[in-house]
Write a structure and sequence with these properties.
Layout: H1 18-28, E1 31-36, H2 41-46, E2 49-51, H3 53-62, E3 67-71, H4 74-83, E4 88-90, H5 99-102, H6 106-114, E5 120-124, H7 129-132, E6 137-139, H8 144-150, E7 157-160, H9 163-173, E8 177-179, H10 192-201, E9 206-209, H11 215-218, E10 223-224, H12 227-236, E11 241-245, H13 250-257, E12 262-265, H14 286-295, H15 304-323
Parallel strand pairs: 1-2, 1-3, 3-4, 5-6, 5-7, 7-8, 9-10, 9-11, 11-12
Helix pairs in contact: 1-14, 3-4, 4-15, 8-9, 12-13
The protein binds 1,3-dihydroxyacetonephosphate (13P) and iron/sulfur cluster.
Length: 328
């Protein structure tokens, strides 16, 4: 079988109903399909569970299925594999990386950590397994503030790799942090000027901003929050129009959950398109998902020694999140 390209590259009969075939194969394989909110609409429609990074990690830890097909990016597949080493974890295209995770190579992060031996190391889930292995506690955008607040006040903190999320958490918790200088190419792309123009057109609109966005964008927000928090806000807020500053895949769920409301994606700075898409997330297509279930590839593997170290800060995150009532 040809997986050299990072996905199963075998032609698919164009007459097939892929949605039906995926559902059939999923049952045959005892597989569960999990999709991040930034996935294509058709992938979200066929998934058993849709969620943000925290929800996907929690669902992976709890599932009874023998096979987890993670429609998201590589680090999400790694997190699932680390939590469930006995299960088969598939990401339908392993080229689905993450510019933020890539901005923090493990060898450089090790030097950064070793130079500060008295620090508590907090890493965003958007990191490789090797970076998690150097970490004391993992966080996602849904629990970063509460987890940082729960850490002993007398110990300094290293936060990596997202500088925008790190600065936001430092400002909201008042905790001094040494922050790794990484960023996500999607959330860094929003332009204050374009956002102002759009807000002039829709002055009643509430502006929703993911904390991976830079401070000037966050300062314009009615609501700063994780993908899940932005979705919850859209459902409960009195406003009927929203400008959304995060990856545009979330608009599908916002529209599903709030059929009477209007959601406008904030455009990126370069002006080449009207919304901001993560090209890695969009690598997962129905064809690749179908072939991945059909041929059970490509599988995610994690070095056992790295997995042994990385599981501790991930489980610590889940444990603190349960204790604080963020997850059940
Ligand atoms: P959340 O899913 O935690 O909101 O993170 C956003 C993101 O960029 C995932 O890659
Ligand atoms: Fe990574 Fe950004 Fe894509 Fe999320 S949106 S997967 S942080 S590159």
């Amino acid at each position: 079988m040809n997986v050299e390209k990072g996905y199963v590259d075998i032609p698919i009969d164009p007459a097939l109903d892929l949605r039906e075939e995926i559902t059939r194969l999923k049952r045959e394989r005892n597989a569960v399909i999990m999709a991040h909110y930034y996935q294509r609409e058709e992938i979200q429609q066929v998934a058993d569970h849709i969620g943000d990074s925290l929800a996907l990690a929690q669902l992976a830890a709890k599932t009874d299925a023998q096979v987890i097909v993670l429609c998201g990016v590589h680090f999400m597949g790694e997190t699932a594999k680390i939590l469930c080493p006995e299960k088969t974890v598939i990401v339908p295209d392993i080229n689905a990386g993450c510019s933020l995770a890539d901005s923090c190579p493990a060898d450089k992060f090790r030097e950064f950590v070793q130079a500060r031996p008295d620090h508590t190391v907090v890493s965003y889930v958007n990191t490789s397994a090797a970076v998690k292995a150097l970490t004391d506690v993992v966080v996602t955008s849904s629990n970063a503030r509460q987890i940082v607040e729960s850490l002993p006040a007398d110990k300094p903190i290293i936060f990596g790799p997202d500088r925008n999320l790190g600065n936001y958490i430092s400002a909201t918790t008042g905790r001094q942090m040494t922050i790794w200088d990484g960023a996500c190419h999607v959330h860094e792309q929003f332009s204050v000027e374009k956002l102002l123009q759009l807000h002039k057109q829709y002055p009643q609109a509430h502006i929703l901003v993911h904390p991976e966005c830079p401070k000037p964008i966050r300062l314009m927000a009615n609501m700063v929050g994780s993908t899940q928090a932005l979705l919850n806000y859209a459902v409960t807020a009195q406003a009927d129009t929203f400008i959304v500053c995060t990856e545009s895949g979330i608009l599908f769920q916002m529209q599903q959950k709030c059929p009477g409301k209007t959601f406008i994606p904030a455009p990126p700075e370069d002006g080449t398109c009207a919304c901001n898409e993560c090209n890695f997330m969009k690598l997962i297509t129905m064809g690749k998902l179908y072939n991945s279930l059909r041929y059970m590839a490509p599988e995610i593997t994690v070095d056992p020694e790295i997995a042994r170290q990385a599981v501790k800060p991930i489980e610590r995150m889940l444990e603190i999140s349960r204790q604080l009532g963020i997850i059940k």
